[in-house]
Amino acid sequence: MSANPLAAKIAAPYARALYDFSVEQNIMHQITADFQNLEVFLSKTEDFTTYLSNPLISADKKREILEKTLKSELNTQTFKFLLVLVDRDRINLLDAVIDSYLQLVYRLASIKMIEVSTAFAFTNKQKNMLIKKLKELTNAREIRLVITVDSSLIGGFLIKTNSRVLDFTIKNQLQKLASHLDSVLEI
Amino acid sequence: MTTRFSRALATFRTKERQIFLEVKQQIITLVLKRTAARAQEAFGQKERATALINETITKIEGDLL
Questions:
Q1: CA of B43, closest CA in chain A: separation in Å?
Q2: How many domains does chain B have?
Q3: Residue A43 — left, alpha, or beta (φ > 0 → left; ψ -120 to 50 → alpha)?
Q4: Which member of A27, A69, A115, B13 has the lowest number of beta carbons within 10 Å of its beta carbon?
Q5: Domain that holds residue B31
């Protein structure tokens, strides 16, 4: 199951389909973990990969060995995907599919998703300005903005990432004013 | 007599504090309501809202994310 350009080309649509499915079902994390483990496992079990690649061995036998060895170790969807590869006689491309899938995931990893809540919708020019600024600050290759409009913020916007919330809204300033008044008004 | 006077004084202070707290809360609410109304009026205009967003974008700095 060595990766070659032809195998990579055939494997790519399978990887892409699984990738899209994992995004849609919100199980990318599990599938990625499974594939990372499988990659290590396959690299250490040459006999196993040779067995799966052998065209003389029937699909039923391959399915049987996969069930015995991997079913309990993998996420249900990952395992179902392996069975699809067996059914389509593409299990010999498992290495290439794993490689292609992980490349897609890793590429996504350098795309930073940033949620923006704003009182007023951003213009395209503002979106581009913000993306440019965030690229400078995060060193991310790509920035993907997920913008929601929330008029209760009164003005300005807030930025949410995995680790931080940067609140530049008028609502937040009013909340700060409230706590300031509470602390400065002495009885 | 002294005990009764002390109790009355304590009750008075508690009431006094309670009233002050209520007045404080009313002042804060009033200030916030007025400020919120002014902010809504000011930033409800598209030009001001756009300008605020633009200013904020240019002001973001540091190792933020």
A1: 6
A2: 1
A3: alpha
A4: B13
A5: 20-59
pTM: 0.55
A53: left (phi over 0), alpha (psi -120 to 50) or beta: alpha
Domain contains B28: yes
State the Cα–Cα distance between residues A86 and A66, nearest whole angstrom. Answer: 10
Is there a contact between A40 and A46 (Cβ–Cβ < 8 Å)? no
A2: confidence class by pLDDT, cuts 50, 70, 90: very low
Residues of B in contact with A120 (CB under 8 A): 46, 49-50, 53
Sketch the domain layout of chain A as residue ranges: 5-107, 110-184
Question: What integer best gives the mean pLDDT of chain A?
Answer: 89
Give the pLDDT mean for A41-62.
Answer: 92
In a domain, B6, yes or no: no
Q: Which residues lie below 8 Å from residue A150, measured CB to CB, with a gap of 6+?
A: A117, A118, A119
A55/A92 Cα distance (integer angstroms)? 9
Q: How far is A24 from chain B (nearest CA, A)?
A: 26
- Put simply, whether A131 touches B (Cβ < 8 Å) is no
**Stronger pLDDT, A157 or A182, i.e. the higher one:** A157
Q: Which CATH class is domain A5-107?
A: mainly alpha
Phi and psi torsions of A112, nearest 5°:
-95, 125
Angle at B36 between CA A158 and CA B41, to 5 degrees: 95
- Per residue in A116-174, pLDDT (tens digit) is 999 999 999 999 999 999 888 887 777 878 899 999 999 999 998 867 889 999 999 99
